[in-house]
Recover the amino acids of this structure.
């Protein structure tokens, strides 16, 4: 089977079942678009977090309250 015949057969198959071909193309488009959006969101979050950490500087210690009963003593070994 030549390349021309293969393309002709594929084109006839697409035209014979238009709804199936449309749904297949729609599924592929939605899948590719969702992957692009997820990658974009991931890159955006990474940039945001990097900028947030860089804006804090290197001489900053953040302390947050965990609630009652979760206190822990800090020793000199924890500092180094």
């Amino acid at each position: 089977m030549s390349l021309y015949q293969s393309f002709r057969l594929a084109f006839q198959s697409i035209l014979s079942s238009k709804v199936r071909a449309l749904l297949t193309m729609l599924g592929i488009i939605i899948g590719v678009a969702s992957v692009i959006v997820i990658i974009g969101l991931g890159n955006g979050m990474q940039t945001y977090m990097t900028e947030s950490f860089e804006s804090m500087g290197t001489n900053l210690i953040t302390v947050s309250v965990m609630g009652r009963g979760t206190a822990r003593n800090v020793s000199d070994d924890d500092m180094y």
Residues 18-56 form the longest helix (39 residues). The radius of gyration is 28 Å.
